[in-house]
């Protein structure tokens, strides 16, 4: 640790105008330790303490952040009489990473943390001064490199797994291989709205990382002849949507409907994916998962599965997200359908 340079309090003006840590002393006792962007300017502000001081001391640092970290260490070491903030065991922020097949990542104030009942080695990264920025950084990092944060493994995968932000060590490998049908990072949900085929509309709403993103909402005025055929209308909407390769393709397409709607969506997807001359984006279409949700019992139909799955039997985080996406698509389609009906009435 760097050593203090001492001055008499009468030589206060000799303090540098640089970042650093300063100390007020009386004999060998430390009365107060602080940090500053400018040592000279900050020390001059301590008018009430200066009359108690016999000696000044300081250490220059390269930045205010370095001064903040050094101040913390010195306060803990010398326990100054008039400092109250950093005398306890709390420290700046560190990121802990456990050494195990699926490492746990967590934030702590105590880099020597002992976790009860854990016989694990933990690596620590830090210190970090700004906890808010640190949390945001880890949040962004998790989207690229999924990691685990739970202390104890749950009985079934949580929302972080559904968002592709956790490797889900709680999910057995066999189940993961069979049920990898939860690509919920980027969802597009579709619905059709019409009255006996009149003023038919289609909607596409987009959820990214569990939240609606209205920048990617789209609405379609159905061009099909005015007949009450929801399946044909759905095929038209999906055909028109998949031609737009400039729109980011989703991980999952969710259709409002049952087996017939699912088969119609799969037919359009397969047709677009097998077109020749466009191998790059046709492969992306092929990778899109398709599901349909029947309203009556909230039965979820999925490709490559003969029988539907009841939504209530799936993890609540996933089922709630699916319901939100379905309901939002329904709302958006009805809103556009209502707008077209009003325009028709006004023009008649």
User: Considering the protein shown, what is the CATH homologous superfamily of the largest domain?
Assistant: UvrC, RNAse H endonuclease domain
Q: In the CATH classification, which architecture of the largest domain applies?
A: 2-Layer Sandwich
Helix content: 25-40%
CATH fold annotation of the largest domain = Nucleotidyltransferase, domain 5
H/E series, N to C?
Answer: EEEHHEHEEEHHHEEEEHEHHEEEH
* Strand-pairing-aware structural class: alpha+beta
Q: What is the tally of helical segments? A: 10
Q: Mind telling me the C-alpha Rg?
A: 31 Å
Report on the structure:
The protein is α+β, with helices and mostly antiparallel strands and 348 residues long. The chain has 3 domains: 5-78, GIY-YIG endonuclease, CATH 3.40.1440; 93-156, no CATH class; 186-347, UvrC, RNAse H endonuclease domain (Nucleotidyltransferase, domain 5). 34% of the residues lie in helices and 25% in strands. The protein has helices at 39-44, 47-50, 64-78, 131-144, 159-162, 173-178, 230-242, 259-273, 279-286, 316-347, and strands spanning 5-8, 20-26, 29-36, 55-60, 93-98, 105-108, 122-128, 186-195, 198-208, 211-212, 218-221, 252-256, 289-294, 299-302, 309-310. The strands form 3 sheets. Strands 8, 9, 10, 11, 12, 13, 14 and 15 form an 8-stranded mixed beta sheet that branches. A 4-stranded antiparallel beta sheet has the order 1-4-2-3. A 3-stranded antiparallel beta sheet has the order 6-5-7, with helices on one face. A hairpin with a 6-residue loop joins strand 5 and strand 6. Helix 7 (230-242) runs parallel beside helix 8 and helix 8 packs antiparallel against helix 9. The longest helix has 32 residues, at 316-347. It is elongated, with a radius of gyration of 31 Å. The N and C termini lie far apart (85 Å).
């Amino acid at each position: 640790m760097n050593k203090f340079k001492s001055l008499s309090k009468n030589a206060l003006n000799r303090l540098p105008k640089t970042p650093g840590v300063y100390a007020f002393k009386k004999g060998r006792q430390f009365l107060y330790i602080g940090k500053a962007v400018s040592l000279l300017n900050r020390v001059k502000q301590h008018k009430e303490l200066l009359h108690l001081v016999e000696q000044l001391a300081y250490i220059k640092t390269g930045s205010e952040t370095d001064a903040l970290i050094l101040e913390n260490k010195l306060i803990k070491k010398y326990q100054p009489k008039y400092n109250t903030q950093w005398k306890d065991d709390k420290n700046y922020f560190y990121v802990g990473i456990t050494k195990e097949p699926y490492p746990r990542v967590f934030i702590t104030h105590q880099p020597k943390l002992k976790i009860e009942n854990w016989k694990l080695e933990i690596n620590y990264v830090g210190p970090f001064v700004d906890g808010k920025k640190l949390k945001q950084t880890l949040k962004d990092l998790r989207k690229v490199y999924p990691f685990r944060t739970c202390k104890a493994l749950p009985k079934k995968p949580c929302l972080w797994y559904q968002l592709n932000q956790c490797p889900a060590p709680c999910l057995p490998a066999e189940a993961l291989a069979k049920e990898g049908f939860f690509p919920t990072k980027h969802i597009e949900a579709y619905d059709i709205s019409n009255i006996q085929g009149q003023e038919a509309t289609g909607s596409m709403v987009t959820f990214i990382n569990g939240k609606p993103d209205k920048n990617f909402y789209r609405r379609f005025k159905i061009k099909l002849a005015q007949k009450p055929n929801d399946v044909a209308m759905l095929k038209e909407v999906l055909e028109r949507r998949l031609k737009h390769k400039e729109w980011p393709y989703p991980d999952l397409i969710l259709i409002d409907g049952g087996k017939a709607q699912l088969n119609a969506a799969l037919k359009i997807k397969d047709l677009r994916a097998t077109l020749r001359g466009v191998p790059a984006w046709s492969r992306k279409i092929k990778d899109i998962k398709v599901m349909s949700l029947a309203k009556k019992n909230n039965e979820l139909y999925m490709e490559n599965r003969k029988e539907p799955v009841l939504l209530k039997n799936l993890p609540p985080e996933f089922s709630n997200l699916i319901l939100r996406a379905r309901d939002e698509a329904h709302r958006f389609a009805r809103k556009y359908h209502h707008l077209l009906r009003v325009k028709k009435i006004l023009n008649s």
